[in-house]
């Protein structure tokens, strides 16, 4: 999710499409929050592990 967000951020900046930049920023933030929750040992989406 974080990687997809970064890709959308870059595409939004290069192609001058503000909606891609906004969606990319949201995906990066949500991905970072999920990563932090997973690192703290909390269940994310009803699952303890994602693999």
**Low-pLDDT windows of residues:** none
Rg is 13 Å
Shape: rod-shaped
What percent of the residues sit in helical stretches (DSSP H or I)?
A: over 70%
- The mean pLDDT is 85
Oligomer: single chain
Distance between the termini: 15 Å
| String of helices and strands | HH
Tell me the number of helical segments per DSSP (H or I, 4 or more residues long).
2
Strand content: under 5%
Strand segment tally: 0
* Count of the domains: 1
Which structural class matches the secondary elements?
mainly alpha
Please characterize this protein's 3D structure.
- It is a single chain.
- This protein has helices at residues 2-15, 18-39.
- It is mainly alpha-helical.
- α1 packs antiparallel against α2 (18-39).
- The relative contact order is 0.18.
Question: What is the fold's blueprint, element by element?
Answer:
Layout: H1 2-15, H2 18-39
Helix pairs in contact: 1-2
Concise structural overview:
Helices cover 71% and strands 0% of the residues.
What keyword list fits this structure?
single chain, about 50 residues, mainly alpha, 2 helices
């Amino acid at each position: 999710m974080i990687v997809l967000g970064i890709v959308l951020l870059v595409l939004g900046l290069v192609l001058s499409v503000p909606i891609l930049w906004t969606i990319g920023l949201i995906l990066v933030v949500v991905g970072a929050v999920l990563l932090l929750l997973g690192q703290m040992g909390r269940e994310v989406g009803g699952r303890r592990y994602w693999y």
